[in-house]
Design brief:
The structure holds 2 protein chains of 2 kinds. Chain A is mainly alpha-helical. Chain A contains 22 helices and 2 strands. Chain A is 65% helix and 1% strand. Chain B is elongated. The chains are: A mainly alpha, B alpha+beta.
Chain lengths: 442, 148
């Protein structure tokens, strides 16, 4: 009989936990949803931004109305409150939703089940009663889980199981990803996370073998990504930039893209078809095909808040999710396959950060951590895995990195719970508040 | 049939039985009587009258063995001009009554809810009010519903 050793136990445990990681996260997610709603008497899941992303569904499928007027009559006496984010366009008087329809499209299967159950139980068929609320929250959780499953499959192609598992744990619980799959599950971030993970994974497959089905599905994913959050269109740049590390590889990609132009055109056609209903809605409401649904709000390119969005106590990405510094280190030490993604990642994330830092509300309203970066966490996962792989080759630094990963992940979990308990302010947190609340649950 | 297939078949049967049981339960859940929507928490008038603010669409349930209900309502449609509001009542999506609600005055309206039996323990009452005011879209106070 072989003697028990820690190493042997790990060798047995890691593949098993990795295989069941999605299930474990699902159980934790459902328990968290129940705790938030029942234990903490949290607000209904369809609220704030989640309301505007979701409202397309009751409007289309219950009231058979694309203008939102029927929902406004039913819920709100004919006029939405100004702060709902559904405002009348000045020149036409029609409602325009600040948020696009992608989340609603992705929630559709959940909504249909909720609607059937609502009729079955004789609950009010208003789009916001019990089953609709739970279905919408569950949709966000399921898309986070789907994104994690895609990410696991993608990382498994390039990294050992132990590295993939460590990466998934830190990305899920060491950032605000789990929060956006549970507490704020109806916001767009759970859905965008899944779509960007799918985009990255499929881009790799498309460059390996550009089958028609891959091309068209990739077009659909890009379309849904744009439909969910318009600025995420920039992540489509990964398709042409995949594997670019120099001028030479860029030229090689261009010639390979030209050789695949028919499939590229097919991909573009599917993307355009997917996005077109949103354009039609904009046109019907405003008379223009492309509009800034935020009206006078938008980007303030003369005063970017780079340090605010990256390091500040208010909403700094690395302040609230310090585990992501491991991914930054991974960019520097990435080798092999991960190295091929460094340049596209730096270009896309620089553009993304620039837009986020220039948004009029650079804190992105009430949120745990900086939610604008949550969408791209699958990209951070690649470089976190690259850093863990680099660490694994240097036994001397393994304990230090393990301690850093455990501490930053634990801190993130503690702070997430503090946010759920409404101890941490939804926005404008000050250093004094942070210091007073540090690791406190009351 | 191999042991594995037998296990899988049992699993499928158990799943279908579970779904059927859940659907039967959800067709007439006992907790639905306490479900409301579009109604805020209970408050109390200085006179002692308990009420809940209703938004433009409010829903509550009444036991199906009751044949009449008396609604106590006060419209608050803008106290300066004294205009009135309109309220539509439906029972299980069937129209029951439409009436005008005066401004700032408690009224009581007795309504007969007997009709086709749905075979459920509770009947759903929907109130749709217009106009509503303010950020929370409130305009009607609904007192305790008396049932006979």
């Amino acid at each position: 009989m072989r003697s028990f050793t820690f190493r042997r136990a790990l060798q047995w445990l890691v593949p098993h936990v990795l295989r069941h990681f999605i299930l474990i996260t699902a159980v934790l997610g459902v328990l968290s949803l129940a705790w938030i709603r029942i234990g903490l008497h949290g607000d209904p899941p369809i609220r704030a931004d989640g309301y505007t992303y979701y409202v397309y569904l009751p409007s289309w499928l219950i009231f058979h109305d694309t203008t939102f007027d029927s929902v406004a009559r039913d819920c709100c006496g004919g006029e939405f409150a100004v702060d709902t984010g559904i405002v009348r366009w000045p020149s036409t008087g029609r409602y325009v939703n600040v948020h696009p329809m992608g989340v609603a499209v992705l929630m559709l299967p959940f909504f249909v089940v909720a609607d059937l159950l609502t009729r079955w139980s004789n609950l009010p068929r208003d789009g916001f009663s019990l089953y609709y609320q739970y279905a919408a929250a569950l949709a966000g959780l399921v898309y986070v889980l789907a994104g994690l499953a895609i990410l696991r499959g993608w990382l498994r192609r390039h990294f050992r199981p132990g590295i993939v598992l460590a990466t998934l744990v830190v990305i899920t619980f060491g950032t605000n990803l789990f929060h956006y799959g549970t507490f704020d599950a109806t916001f767009s971030h759970a859905f965008s996370f899944c779509l960007i993970a799918a985009l990255l994974s499929m881009t790799e497959r498309w460059w390996e073998a550009p089958r028609w089905i891959t091309s068209l599905t990739l077009g659909l994913v890009v379309g849904l990504m744009i439909l969910t959050r318009h600025p995420n269109a920039m992540f489509a740049a990964f398709v042409p930039l995949y594997g670019v590390t120099s001028w030479h590889t860029l030229r090689a990609n261009v010639s390979r893209l030209w050789a695949r132009r028919a499939k590229l055109a097919g991909m573009f056609a599917v993307t355009a078809a997917t996005v077109s209903p949103q354009l039609a809605i904009y046109h019907a409401a405003t008379g223009h095909w492309i509009v800034s649904s935020y009206g006078s709000f938008g980007f303030t390119f003369d005063s970017p808040h780079f340090s605010g969005v990256l390091f500040s106590v208010q909403k700094g990405l690395f302040f609230w999710s310090p585990a992501l510094l491991l991914a930054v280190a991974g960019v520097a030490v990435a080798r092999g396959w991960a190295r091929m993604l460094v340049l596209p990642t730096l270009l896309v994330m620089a553009a993304d950060t620039y837009l986020i830092a220039n948004w009029w509300d650079w804190q992105f309203g009430g949120s745990y951590g900086h939610r604008a970066f949550t969408d791209a966490l699958s990209l951070a996962a690649v470089f976190m895995a690259a850093f863990f792989e680099w660490t694994a080759r240097r036994q001397r630094v393994v304990p230090d990195v393990a301690v850093a990963a455990v501490l930053t992940t634990s801190l993130s979990i503690v702070q997430m719970i503090q946010y759920w308990l409404r101890l941490i302010p939804a926005q404008d947190t000050t250093w004094e508040q942070y210091r007073q609340l540090f690791l406190r649950f009351h | 049939m191999t042991r594995r297939r037998a296990l899988a078949a049992s699993g499928v049967v158990a799943f279908l039985v579970l779904i059927a049981a859940a659907m039967t339960y959800l067709h007439d859940p006992p907790w639905i009587g306490s479900v409301t929507s579009g109604l805020r928490d209970w408050e109390q008038e200085p006179s002692g009258t308990r009420f809940r603010w209703a938004s433009s669409h409010a829903t509550f349930y009444v036991p199906s063995d009751r044949s009449t209900m008396t609604l106590s309502l006060e419209g608050v449609f803008g106290e300066t001009d004294g205009r009135t509001g309109t309220i539509d009542i439906t029972v299980d999506d069937r129209w029951l009554a439409t009436f005008t609600l005066p401004d700032s005055e408690w009224i009581q309206r007795r309504l007969t809810i007997a009709g086709e039996s749905t075979g459920r323990r509770y009947r759903r009452i929907d109130m749709r009010v217009r106009p509503t005011f303010g950020h929370r879209n409130l305009s009607v106070k609904l007192g305790e519903v008396a049932l006979e």
